[in-house]
Amino acid sequence: xxxxxxxxxxxxxxxxxxxxxxxxxxxxxxxxxxxxxxxxxxxxxxxxxxxxxxxxxxxxxxxxxxxxxxxxxxxxxxxxxxxxxxxxxxxxxxxxxxxxxxxxxxxxxxxxxxxxxxxxxxxxxxxxxxxxxxxxxxxxxxxxxxxxxxxxxxxxxxxxxxxxxxxxxxxxxxxxxxxxxxxxxxxxxxxxxxxxxxxxxxxxxxxxxxxxxxxxxxxxxxxxxxxxxxxxxxxxxxxxxxxxxxxxxxxxxxxxxxxxxxxxxxxxxxxxxxxxxxxxxxxxxxxxxxxxxxxxxxxxxxxxxxxxxxxxxxxxxxxxxxxxxxxxxxxxxxxxxxxxxxxxxxxxxxxxxxxx
Length: 356
Known about the structure:
Layout: E1 8-12, H1 16-27, E2 31-35, E3 49-51, H2 58-67, E4 70-73, H3 80-87, H4 96-102, H5 105-114, E5 122-125, H6 128-137, E6 142-146, E7 156-159, H7 170-173, E8 179-182, E9 189-197, E10 203-205, E11 209-214, E12 217-223, H8 229-245, E13 250-258, E14 264-270, H9 280-283, H10 288-296, E15 309-316, H11 323-327, E16 332-336, E17 347-355
Parallel strand pairs: 1-2, 1-4, 2-3
Antiparallel strand pairs: 5-8, 6-7, 6-8, 9-10, 9-11, 9-13, 11-12, 12-15, 13-14, 15-17, 16-17
Helix pairs in contact: 1-10, 3-4
């Protein structure tokens, strides 16, 4: 059963993704309330109301549940316990299980492998001795990552052709937290698929984007990706398999490495609207943000077809200086996030350049 117009959708998290979800919800006639500790957050500037409290504050969660017909979240580091507490009172989509899988890289890769989706090889690492053994297994090369809470390249260290030994202090330098060593992958390009699953189990997947990262941060997404139709279909099929296995509702982002033969290795999944899908607001009738609201509200999913090719680019830090020139360009859609302070590495907005 779909939500009636005028119903309130709760959003745990008030960053730019929550902002764009609130804007999409308003277009479909829904009200929004965001839970976010930062006052005047990007989402609160366009939502109907903000609860200013921590994401797992019990009283705030109870207030959010009481005010909402359904609750979603805008980032994958919302505490699982908070999502479960909400789910005991009100429908929560995507389901808390999706958060649980995505928040731990070992759990995530084990889940993917368990449903037949290949990934890079990996080893859990809890101390320097385990790191030495893991590097021996991967011939001295690999990417060491924190298992939890890493994003935009944070909490990572790359090893290349290093002698397997002498790593005393590495785990301490990484914060003495659970780690994972992933084998290096000789990939040709990185792509991502944005896909949605509705309450009725229907699935809609957007065309894959080809992504370029710098300093661990997504900078450019190009659509269409430079891949063959078989690879694109395989990526969409993998996303659909993930959605079904998690009994998912809403948008998911799935990142892949494309190998020389066109085969895929899943890199990670994001149980939310995704940066590499921002292009959909300029190049599709139904954006990923509207698609997510449609899904969690029980509405029919919209068409994921694009009406043009495009390139989306993030505005990070001092990239804000480009704004006047971008506004003077034809065929550019600009979206700024309402953040008061520009800092190095901080996403301030994005723009999508239409290719006619």
